[in-house]
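Hi support team,

I've been running sequence recovery on a batch of backbones for a student project. Most finish fine, but this one hangs at about 90% for roughly twenty minutes before it completes. I'm not sure whether the input is malformed or the queue is just slow. I've pasted the structure tokens below so you can try to reproduce it. Let me know if you need the job ID as well.

Thanks,
M.K.
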């Protein structure tokens, strides 16, 4: 094993979405290789993803009141519960993983109060005594690489032979859900409307893919059943609400290509080696959140007026950055990425990490 000697009990913190937790996976594996025990502290939206990551001995959950679109209320009881949970596990070290626009300092304070001896994080804000390693991320760094940079500078390295790609534990066989024939996954939903096609546009895309001869499988969560039913229509197999995250990983692993917005399933597809047609609204920068480590094609007007606005709802009539993507563009991207996936379970070459422009094509 690499990393610190003697091996430590280490906590990795990533408190937001499933996609963010999946992007933390390479850093988590580096920490696990240099630790005797590795726990992951997630928010409720990321816990399922955390349980899929190799190297994690335990997943803890905390609904942090400074995270998410609908943050939990500040609660003295919940704060005490977290402090008691962390204190009981006697962690030696902690890595707090945050995106470039987030602060690690609220959770760093709680870690100190819980007795964690040493904490590292990226921080633009002066941390005082809250951080033992105040790290500065490189400009324009992809989230997966930024997390690995922090782990490395905290003394943790990927084990020999680990290419640093996204990865999860082996997903289940989901042929009983999808059928055995080759298929393309279309995932029309996202956490916020600005990052997804409108339902009508997604429905037209499903029809265009089916007319081109592709068998289309539409996926979505339980709350998205109306959406997936509309999009699937008579053109596609509707699996809305039929899978948990692990089963969705199996569905994505069997797909020739996944067509999805900037949302958790895009990173889940990357974690099982499936190429991604990324419908990427520029409300956040693609250089940080594009599909990582797999072939992908980026679609969407990255120079739209909403760029880097972090808007949840498109501020422009007609959602032009995504709904303006033509069927011909989608079909060309699916065809290009599917050429190397002649079998539904074929695995594309695994490569090390890189930026969006290195790892895929931009359209």
């Amino acid at each position: 094993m690499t990393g610190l000697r003697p091996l430590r009990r280490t906590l990795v913190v990533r408190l937001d979405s499933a996609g963010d937790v999946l992007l933390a996976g390479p850093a988590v594996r580096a920490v696990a290789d240099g630790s005797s025990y590795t726990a992951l502290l997630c928010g409720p939206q990321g816990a399922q993803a955390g349980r899929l990551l190799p190297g994690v001995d335990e997943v803890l959950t905390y609904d942090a009141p400074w995270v998410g679109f609908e943050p939990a209320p500040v609660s003295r009881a919940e704060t005490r519960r977290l402090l008691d949970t962390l204190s009981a596990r006697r962690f030696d070290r902690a890595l707090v993983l945050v995106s470039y626009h987030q602060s690690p300092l609220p959770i760093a304070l709680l870690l100190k109060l819980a007795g964690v001896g040493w904490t590292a994080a990226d921080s633009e804000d002066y941390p005082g005594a809250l951080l033992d390693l105040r790290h500065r991320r490189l400009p324009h760094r992809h989230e997966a690489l930024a997390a690995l940079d922090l782990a490395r500078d905290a003394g943790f390295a990927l084990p020999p032979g680990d290419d640093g790609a996204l990865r999860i534990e082996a997903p289940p066989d989901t042929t009983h859900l999808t059928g055995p024939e080759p298929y393309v996954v279309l995932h029309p939903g996202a956490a916020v409307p600005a990052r997804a096609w409108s339902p009508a546009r997604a429905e037209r895309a499903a029809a265009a893919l089916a007319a081109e001869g592709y068998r289309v499988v539409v996926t979505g969560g339980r709350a998205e059943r109306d959406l997936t039913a509309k999009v699937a229509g008579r053109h596609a197999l509707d699996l809305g609400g039929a899978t948990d995250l692990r089963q969705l990983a199996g569905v994505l692993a069997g797909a020739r290509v996944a067509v999805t917005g900037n949302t958790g399933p895009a990173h889940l597809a990357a974690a099982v080696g499936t190429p991604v047609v990324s419908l990427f609204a520029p409300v956040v920068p693609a250089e940080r959140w594009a599909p990582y480590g797999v072939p992908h094609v980026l679609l969407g007007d990255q120079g739209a007026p909403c760029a880097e606005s972090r808007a949840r709802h498109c501020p422009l009539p007609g959602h032009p950055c995504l709904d303006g993507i033509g069927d011909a563009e989608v079909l060309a991207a699916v065809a290009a990425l599917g050429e190397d996936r002649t079998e539904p379970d074929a695995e594309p070459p695994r490569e090390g990490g890189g930026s969006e422009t290195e790892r895929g094509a931009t359209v």
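--
Follow-up from support: It reproduced on our side and the slowdown came from queue contention, not your input. The CA atoms of residues 162 and 199 lie 39 Å apart. No action needed from you.
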